[in-house]
């Protein structure tokens, strides 16, 4: 398509060199992928400046190059007169706008539901996808656990941990639409909002879960973190708000002008829908959903109080889209849980093993509260410092777990370029008594899982927290495949085999 001819006024173009009025067959933001007859957008990142790869992009066959460094573009324009160069105010905004045009605004053909908050984004987005599928709206999901259409996982390699770059986002929307999906539940992170990955999208529904300090390595202050998250509600038609949250619920309620639904786990609150009498069983949770004067007795295969809050958020989305509560509650009865979020395994060695992504102090507190309600002999918990996230929260994780479990394993997720033991040491500084005999150190997540299993006996409850993003550990810039489930499976297979031949 010829983006320039069609829309150059809306793209924030300041100056051009050469003739940008030409057909382009694709857009790229990575010079290593550029193909003939395409548009390359130069992005200034944390490690590289895309303008440094113009030469490579020209060699790759880029027909048009856009960026926000006028001097570099002009310099290259003289060197490559056959290539067109476009100077824009902001390259990330341009990438988002150009991607929207390239995909012919396909995102407007589907219901876009953006989920933001410190904890619960993956769960809520997965619940929205599952609930809406169950009610008959083919729905996809975009977020930490990958990209899914209503029919299954898409073969799309993730370039970011959670929210894709704008170009990738619109590519996925296009694929979802072509597969027949009519709704996309998208995790929208503060980093993505700051980096304009969702710019230009007017979300049909924006959902808020909660806000506590996170990503301070990126935003530096809590206020800036909150500001970034609030941006989602300035580009949404309808909102869903957790009024139990002290972090930013009131900010949204004060500023949001469109239709808004609230949810709460406090039966005495003023929320539009509330849950009361929450009771957990081995199959899931039952509760009373209160909507005005009406009470609906409800059951859903989800575990933990906070997952009832997450479910209420998904139900509010269904209500916003015009569905009736009884139908939504029927759909909730067969809702699917996302991988690694309160995933309960009963099948190994007469133990209960829980895989949960809790990697912030509040998430760990909530998780402990929930798991302690489950029947168990001893409680064994693994916590991790995450090498690619902020270090400030690491000691806080230790403070939360100290005295709360019979055995504690301290390990590492995604050491990145750090020495893994430095991460473990950083977590250990949070313990009052780091030398306690029930605290064990493991330099890799693999060894951490094995230590937890070695320490366990029948009837024990083993909780493996933090979780590894996308089935891999990030070590020195490389993704090393990792699966807690595979380790557990192998461990019990080997233990059983060893018992059978009388080694143990
Ligand atoms: C801090 C951050 O957002 N980083 C993202 C960013 O990387 P970067 O800024 O380091 O990019 P860079 O390597 O400096 O490169 C700049 C530009 O030059 C280009 N380049 C680079 C090299 C080259 O040879 N040719 C070339 O064209 C790159 O493609 C890029 O466009 O742009 C990359 C390309 O899209 C992302 O992969 C990368 O995500 C990294 C993996 C990451 O860890 N991001 C985290 C911080 C993140 O975004 N997290 C949030 C929240 C997670 C959550 O809470 O769930 C998320 O939404 O995922
Ligand atoms: N509503 C909630 N309130 C508090 N804690 C929650 C809530 N939902 C989930 N959690 C906890 O947070 C963990 C992470 O949940 P989830 O993956 O859904 O959040 P997320 O926001 O997507 O996380 P991330 O930003 O790291 O991708 C869960 O495993 C659980 O321990």
Automatic annotation (TrEMBL):
GO cellular component, one term: cytoplasm
Pathway(s) annotated for this protein in UniProt: Cell wall biogenesis; peptidoglycan biosynthesis
Domain Mur ligase N-terminal catalytic: 23-102
Residue positions binding ATP: 117-123
N6-carboxylysine: residues carrying this PTM: 229
Mur ligase central domain boundaries: 115-317
Domain called Mur ligase C-terminal: residue spans: 340-466
Gene: murE
UniProt-listed InterPro entries: Folylpolyglutamate_synth_CS (IPR018109), Mur-like_cat_sf (IPR036565), Mur_ligase_C (IPR004101), Mur_ligase_C_dom_sf (IPR036615), Mur_ligase_cen (IPR013221), Mur_ligase_N (IPR000713), MurE/MurF_N (IPR035911), UDP-N-AcMur-Glu-dNH2Pim_ligase (IPR005761)
Main location: cytoplasm
PTM statement from Swiss-Prot or TrEMBL: Carboxylation is probably crucial for Mg(2+) binding and, consequently, for the gamma-phosphate positioning of ATP.
Binding site for UDP-N-acetyl-alpha-D-muramoyl-L-alanyl-D-glutamate: 31, 162-163, 189, 195, 197
A biological process term (GO) from this entry: cell wall organization
Cell location: Cytoplasm
Pfam assignment, any one: Mur_ligase_M
Required co-factors: Mg(2+)
Enzyme Commission number(s) of this protein: 6.3.2.-
Free-text function comment from the UniProt entry: Catalyzes the addition of an amino acid to the nucleotide precursor UDP-N-acetylmuramoyl-L-alanyl-D-glutamate (UMAG) in the biosynthesis of bacterial cell-wall peptidoglycan.
Species annotation: Metabacillus mangrovi
Molecular function in Gene Ontology: ATP binding; magnesium ion binding; tetrahydrofolylpolyglutamate synthase activity
Keywords: ATP-binding, Cell cycle, Cell division, Cell shape, Cell wall biogenesis/degradation, Cytoplasm, Ligase, Magnesium, Nucleotide-binding, Peptidoglycan synthesis
Family classification: Belongs to the MurCDEF family. MurE subfamily.
The name this protein goes by in its record: UDP-N-acetylmuramyl-tripeptide synthetase
């Amino acid at each position: 398509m010829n983006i320039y001819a069609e829309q150059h006024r809306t793209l924030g173009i300041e100056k051009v060199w050469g003739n940008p009025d030409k057909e382009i067959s694709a857009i790229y933001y990575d010079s290593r992928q550029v193909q003939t007859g395409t548009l390359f957008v130069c992005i200034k990142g944390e490690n590289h400046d895309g303008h440094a790869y113009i030469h490579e992009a020209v060699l790759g066959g880029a027909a048009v190059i856009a960026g926000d460094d006028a001097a570099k573009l002009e310099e290259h324009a003289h060197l490559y007169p056959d290539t067109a160069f476009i100077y824009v105010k902001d390259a990330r905004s341009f990438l988002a706008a150009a991607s929207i045009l390239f995909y012919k605004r396909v995102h407007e053909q589907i219901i876009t539901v953006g989920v933001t908050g410190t904890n619960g984004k993956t769960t809520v987005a997965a619940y929205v996808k599952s609930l809406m599928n169950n009610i008959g709206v083919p729905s996809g999901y975009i977020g930490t656990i990958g990209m899914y259409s209503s029919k299954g996982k898409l073969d799309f390699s993730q370039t970011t941990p959670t929210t894709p770059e704008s170009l990738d986002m619109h590519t996925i929307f296009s694929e979802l639409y072509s597969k027949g999906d009519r709704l996309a539940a998208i995790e929208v992170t503060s980093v993505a909002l700051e980096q304009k990955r969702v710019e230009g999208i007017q979300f049909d529904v924006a959902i808020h879960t909660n806000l506590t300090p996170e990503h301070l390595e990126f935003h530096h202050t809590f206020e800036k973190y909150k500001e970034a998250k609030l941006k989602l509600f300035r580009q949404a038609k309808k909102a869903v708000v957790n009024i139990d949250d002290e972090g930013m619920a009131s900010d949204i309620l004060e500023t949001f002008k469109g239709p808004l639904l609230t949810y709460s786990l406090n039966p005495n609150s003023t929320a539009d829908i509330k849950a009361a009498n929450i009771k957990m069983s081995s199959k899931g949770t039952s509760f009373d959903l209160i909507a005005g004067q009406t009470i609906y007795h409800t059951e859903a295969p989800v575990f933990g109080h906070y997952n009832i809050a997450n479910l209420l958020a998904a139900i509010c989305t269904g209500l916003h889209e015009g569905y009736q509560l009884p139908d939504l509650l029927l759909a909730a009865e067969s809702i699917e849980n996302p991988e690694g979020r309160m995933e309960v395994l009963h099948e190994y060695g007469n133990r209960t093993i829980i895989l949960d992504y809790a990697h912030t102090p509040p998430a760990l507190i909530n998780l402990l509260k929930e798991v302690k309600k489950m029947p168990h002999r001893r409680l064994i918990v693994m916590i991790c410092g995450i090498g690619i996230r902020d270090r400030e929260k690491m000691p806080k994780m230790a403070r939360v777990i100290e005295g709360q479990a019979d055995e504690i394993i301290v390990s590492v997720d995604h050491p990145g370029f750090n020495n893994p033991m430095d991460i473990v040491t950083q977590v250990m500084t949070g313990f009052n008594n780091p030398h306690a005999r029930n605290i064990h150190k493991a330099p890799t997540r693999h060894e951490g899982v094995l230590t937890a299993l070695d320490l366990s006996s029948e009837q024990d409850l083993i909780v493996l927290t933090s979780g590894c993003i996308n089935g891999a550990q990030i070590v020195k810039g490389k993704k090393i495949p990792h699966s807690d489930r595979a380790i557990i499976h192998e461990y019990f297979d080997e233990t059983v085999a060893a018992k059978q031949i009388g080694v143990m």
